[in-house]
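Q: Sequence in, structure out?
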Amino acid sequence: MQVQREKQIILGSGPAGYTAAIYASRAMMEPLIIQGAYPGGQMMITTDVENYPGFPDAVQGPELMERMRLQALNLGTRIAEDHITMADLSSAPFQLQGSNGKAYECDVLVICTGARARWLGLPSEDMFKGFGVSACSTCDGFFYREKEVIVVGGGNTALEDALFLDKFASQITILHRRDSFRAEKILQNLVFKNPKIKIKWNTVLDEVIGNNKPRSVTGAILRNLKTGDTETQEVDGIFIAIGQIPETGLFKGQLEISPSGHLITTPGSTATSCPGVFAAGDVIDNKFRQAITAAGMGCMATLESQSFLESQSHKAHTQETG
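A: Exactly. Output:
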């Protein structure tokens, strides 16, 4: 099988991946992006983005990703429409296998595979994603000024989302399928003291209700798990806060992974536990999860991978000259 040999390969085509490629192209590293199964990442299901610098009138998530893609291409980045199904990081050059049967190898690898939101799996939830149903309060909370919202979940993420939404929403209802939270006590205390936050214990979201023209959420059908009773609640937005699933399956047993499933990097760095492998964006970030922070980490990953290549080249030259 013919193997495509590259200096740097970037896995993933979200803000981290495109930024890594932009910096690599400017450094004449001739990067190859392998765009993955979800080109553009979670930004492709994000509507108005008002907090990304440089867009005073906001920008649609897909448009932002298209602009990043074109910028990377204009600077010389190549993009492969492929999805990596196997990675061997045991020695350099690193070996990768694509879903289309193609094989790749590279001297440095930048992992920007991101994380996908954990959803409930309801058909109505899927219908209104980006139109009133969100998995990112910090991305979309601004749009719910003086409106009523629901937060689904009972861990740290759910309670943090509810407290964040207090800045905007007139009322927040937390739905939790159990009768106690799993979140840290300090967050629980803040939630219990907040007059704008109501809690419905032993309750799940059964269905999202909304309009099609324009597509928008108008309510939710809730079900009590103890009694089986259902109720309809008028609501303007629903935030699903039941966690994220980092796309790290390829690297289990090869790279250090945290209990949350995120890749572990050296503090203050994007370097993973394998020399020559770097990671950026939501695949390592379980705290901020913003397009701008992912882009910043993508920049860091390329700068560090460039330094790594230069150090390897210097080492090889020193050995040759004895």
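The radius of gyration is 22 Å.
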